[in-house]
C-alpha cells in the first residue's frame, strides 16, 4: 500500500497563544512495499508526521493518501476503521501500552475490537508470536512478568496481529541493549520482506537508515530538508551538518582516511570484514599513491 | 580510610526464591575516577546503581562508601555523598519550576535559603541552563530535563554521581551535550562519575570500565583493554566501537598496530604511519 503526503501543513492549537506549526508544506511519497527512513531531531515534526498516517491527526492544509483512503484538510473522514486496520503504528516504548492479564489477550485485543472471528484470532496470535520470535510458553503469562525486551515484542505482536499493510515504527529500538537493538531491526526487516509491508522507520540512527532503508527523508523544523537514496543523502555531509545531523560513522571514517592517507575506498554497504580487507590490501600495495 | 565505593562479595536477589541478580560482586571505585559499568539488559548493572545509595540493600556482602557500610541507619548520610540520575527524565521532577526542583534536594538536606538560591544559580551555570530558572521542567526537551536533573544532584554537592542510562532516551545530539556537560563538571571538581550505559562514546570517555555479565564482574580494565576483546564482548551481547571492529578485522590480514586505536583520529594516524613507512 502506498503512502503520499501532498503539501501537508499541520498546526497545533491554531488561533491560540500556543499555536505551533509542526509540519509545513510537506510532500513525500512512499511506494508500496518500500522501506523509508524518516530522520530528524527532536522537534523536527517526525511524530506529527506519523500520526497522520492513520488519521490520529488531520492535516490543517493539504492531503494525505494511504492506499485509496484520502484525508483532506477540512473534510470529515469516513471509513477510518478500515484505514486503521491496515496501518500499524508501533509507537515509542510500546510496552507502556500493555494492559491485559495475559500475553495472548493483549495480542488478541486489536483483532477482537475489529470483529475478527475467534478461530482466526487464535491463528493470528500464533503467527504474531512467531513473527516477533517469542516462544509459545509466554502465551498464558502476564506480560508484566516478562523482561523489557520481551514486553516490547508482545506490544509489537499486538500491532502485527492486525495484519497491517503499512507498518510505521517510531524509534522501535530506544532503550534496548545493543544486541536487542540489532535483533529487533533484523526482525522488522524480515517481516518487511516476508509480508511485503510498506515500512516507515522513524529513527535517529543513521546506521540503521543506511543498513535497511530504500529511501531516506530528512526533516527539519517541520519541513522536508532532503530526500533520496541513503548513500546519496549521506554524501551531503555539509548540508546534514546544518541541521545538526552526522553522517553514518563508516562514511565519516573513510573520508578521514582519504584525507590523511590518500587511500580512497568506495563504500557500497560492504561489511566491516570486507572493508578491512580492502584497506589492508591498499596499505600493503601502496597502489598508485605517491 | 580510603575514599571510595567498595563492593565486597555482594550478592543480591529481588525475590527469595529467584536466582541472584548479583553473585559475589567485588570491585571498588576510587574517588575522582570515571568508571563506566556496561553489560546487556539483565546483567545486573542497574541493581549495582541502586545498591550504591541504599535504594536496595545487599543480601550478603557489603557495599560501603568512604569506609561506612550502607545500612538503613546511615542511608541519608550516604545519599548526600552519592547522587543519582535515572533514565527517564520525566520521572524525576517534583518542582513546578526548574529553580524549585533543584532547591528540593537541598531543602531535604536542610540548606539555608540564601545559600540555596546562590547554589541554584551556580549549578544551572554548570549545566548551561542558567536562563531557565523560571521554566516548567515538564516543558523542557529531554536533554534539557536531564541537565536539570544533573544540576539537582550537583546542588547537593555529592562526591559520587551515578548516571544510570541517563542518556538512553535522548537523541544523539542530546547525548553528546550531556556527555560534554558531565565532562566539564568533572574537570573542574573532583566528582567521581559512575556511568551505567550502552553508549559507546560514554564508555570510551571513561577512565575504567567494569563489564558485567549474568550478575558477575566479567572484566575490568581501560576502555582500550576492554574493546580489544571484541569477539568475547559480542558473545555476551555487547557492541564495540566501529574502529575496534575494523582494527580486529585488519589484523586478520596481517596488519599490526602499534597500539589499539580507540577513535577515528588514532586509527587514521596508525594507518598513516603504516602507509608512510612501507
UniProtKB/TrEMBL annotation, chain A:
Start and end residues of each ABC transporter domain: 3-246
Major subcellular site: membrane
Keywords from the named record: ATP-binding, Cell membrane, Membrane, Nucleotide-binding, Translocase, Transport
InterPro entries in the cross-refs: AAA+_ATPase, ABC_transporter-like_ATP-bd, ABC_transporter-like_CS, ABC_transpr_CbiO/EcfA_su, ECF_ABC_transporter_ATP-bd, EcfA2, P-loop_NTPase
Protein location: Cell membrane
Membrane topology note: Peripheral membrane protein
Recorded GO MF terms: ATP binding; ATP hydrolysis activity; ATPase-coupled transmembrane transporter activity; cobalt ion transmembrane transporter activity
Taxonomic superkingdom: Bacteria
EC number, UniProt record: 7.-.-.-
One Pfam match: ABC_tran
Gene Ontology terms: cellular component: ATP-binding cassette (ABC) transporter complex
Gene3D superfamilies per record: P-loop containing nucleotide triphosphate hydrolases (3.40.50.300)
Electron transport listed as a keyword: no
Function field: ATP-binding (A) component of a common energy-coupling factor (ECF) ABC-transporter complex.
Assembly information from the UniProt record: Forms a stable energy-coupling factor (ECF) transporter complex composed of 2 membrane-embedded substrate-binding proteins (S component), 2 ATP-binding proteins (A component) and 2 transmembrane proteins (T component).
Family statement: Belongs to the ABC transporter superfamily. Energy-coupling factor EcfA family.
Protein name per UniProt: Energy-coupling factor transporter ATP-binding protein EcfA2
From TrEMBL, chain B:
CDD domains per record: ABC_cobalt_CbiO_domain1 (cd03225)
Subcellular locations according to the entry: Cell membrane
Primary localization: membrane
Pfam short name (any one): ABC_tran
Topology versus the membrane: Peripheral membrane protein
GO CC terms in record: ATP-binding cassette (ABC) transporter complex
Keywords tagged on the record: ATP-binding, Cell membrane, Membrane, Nucleotide-binding, Translocase, Transport
Domain ABC transporter: start-end pairs: 5-239
Listed InterPro entries: AAA+_ATPase (IPR003593), ABC_transporter-like_ATP-bd (IPR003439), ABC_transporter-like_CS (IPR017871), ABC_transpr_CbiO/EcfA_su (IPR015856), ECF_ABC_transporter_ATP-bd (IPR050095), EcfA_1 (IPR030947), P-loop_NTPase (IPR027417)
One function term, GO molecular function aspect: ATP binding
Family listed: Belongs to the ABC transporter superfamily.
Protein's UniProt name: Energy-coupling factor transport system ATP-binding protein
Organism in which the protein naturally occurs: Salimicrobium flavidum
Lineage: Bacteria, Bacillati, Bacillota, Bacilli, Bacillales
Amino acid at each position: 500500500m502506498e503512502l503520499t503526503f501532498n503539501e501537508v501543513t499541520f498546526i497545533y492549537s491554531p488561533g491560540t497563544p500556543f499555536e505551533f506549526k509542526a509540519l509545513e508544506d510537506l510532500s513525500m511519497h512512499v511506494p508500496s512495499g518500500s522501506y523509508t527512513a524518516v530522520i530528524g531531531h527532536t522537534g523536527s515534526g517526525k511524530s506529527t508526521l506519523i500520526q497522520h498516517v492513520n488519521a490520529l491527526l488531520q492535516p490543517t492544509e493539504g492531503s494525505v493518501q494511504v492506499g485509496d483512503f484520502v484525508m483532506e484538510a477540512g473534510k470529515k473522514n469516513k471509513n477510518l476503521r478500515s484505514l486503521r486496520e491496515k496501518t500499524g503504528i508501533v509507537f515509542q516504548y510500546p510496552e507502556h501500552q500493555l494492559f491485559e492479564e495475559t500475553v495472548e489477550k493483549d495480542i488478541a485485543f486489536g483483532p477482537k475490537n475489529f470483529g475478527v472471528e475467534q478461530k482466526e484470532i487464535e491463528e493470528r496470535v500464533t503467527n504474531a508470536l512467531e513473527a516477533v520470535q517469542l516462544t509459545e510458553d509466554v502465551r498464558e503469562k502476564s506480560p508484566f512478568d516478562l523482561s523489557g525486551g520481551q514486553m516490547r515484542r508482545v506490544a509489537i505482536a499486538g500491532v502485527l496481529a492486525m495484519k497491517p499493510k503499512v507498518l510505521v515504527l517510531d524509534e522501535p529500538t530506544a532503550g534496548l541493549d545493543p544486541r536487542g537493538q540489532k535483533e529487533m531491526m533484523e526482525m522488522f526487516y524480515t517481516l518487511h520482506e516476508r509480508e511485503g509491508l510498506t515500512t516507515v522507520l522513524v529513527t535517529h540512527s543513521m546506521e540503521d537508515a543506511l543498513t535497511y532503508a530504500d529511501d531516506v527523508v530528512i526533516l527539519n523544523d517541520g519541513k522536508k530538508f532532503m530526500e533520496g537514496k541513503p548513500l546519496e543523502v549521506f554524501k551531503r555531509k555539509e548540508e546534514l551538518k546544518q541541521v545538526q545531523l552526522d553522517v553514518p560513522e563508516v562514511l565519516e571514517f573513510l573520508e578521514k582516511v582519504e584525507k590523511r592517507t590518500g587511500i580512497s575506498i568506495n563504500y557500497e554497504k560492504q561489511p566491516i570484514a570486507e572493508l578491512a580487507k580492502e584497506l589492508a590490501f591498499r596499505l600493503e600495495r601502496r597502489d598508485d599513491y605517491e | 580510610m580510603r575514599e571510595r565505593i567498595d563492593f565486597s562479595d555482594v550478592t543480591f536477589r529481588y525475590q527469595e526464591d529467584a536466582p541472584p541478580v548479583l553473585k559475589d560482586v567485588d570491585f571498588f571505585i576510587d574517588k575522582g575516577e570515571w568508571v563506566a559499568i556496561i553489560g546487556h539488559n539483565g546483567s545486573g548493572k542497574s541493581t549495582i546503581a541502586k545498591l550504591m545509595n541504599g535504594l536496595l540493600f545487599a543480601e550478603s556482602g557489603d557495599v560501603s562508601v568512604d569506609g561506612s557500610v550502607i545500612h538503613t541507619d546511615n542511608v541519608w548520610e550516604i545519599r548526600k555523598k552519592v547522587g543519582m540520575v535515572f533514565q527517564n527524565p520525566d520521572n524525576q521532577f517534583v518542582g513546578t519550576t526548574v529553580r524549585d526542583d533543584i532547591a528540593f534536594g537541598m531543602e531535604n538536606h536542610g540548606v539555608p535559603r540564601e545559600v540555596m538560591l546562590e547554589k541554584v544559580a551556580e549549578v544551572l551555570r554548570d549545566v548551561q541552563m542558567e536562563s531557565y530558572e523560571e521554566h516548567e521542567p515538564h516543558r523542557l526537551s529531554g536533554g534539557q530535563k536531564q541537565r536539570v536533573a544533573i544540576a539537582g544532584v550537583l546542588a547537593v554537592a555529592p562526591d559520587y554521581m551515578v548516571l544510570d542510562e541517563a542518556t538512553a532516551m535522548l537523541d544523539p545530539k542530546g547525548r553528546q551535550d550531556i556527555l560534554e556537560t558531565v565532562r566539564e563538571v568533572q574537570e573542574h571538581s573532583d566528582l567521581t562519575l559512575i556511568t551505567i550505559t550502552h553508549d559507546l562514546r560514554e564508555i570510551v570517555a571513561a577512565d575504567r570500565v567494569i563489564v558485567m555479565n549474568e550478575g558477575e564482574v566479567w572484566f575490568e580494565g581501560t576502555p582500550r583493554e576492554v574493546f580489544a576483546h571484541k569477539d568475547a564482548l559480542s558473545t555476551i551481547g555487547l557492541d564495540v566501537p566501529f574502529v575496534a571492529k575494523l582494527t580486529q578485522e585488519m589484523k586478520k590480514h596481517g596488519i599490526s598496530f602499534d597500539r589499539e586505536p580507540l577513535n577515528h583520529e588514532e586509527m587514521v594516524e596508525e594507518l598513516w604511519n603504516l602507509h608512510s613507512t612501507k
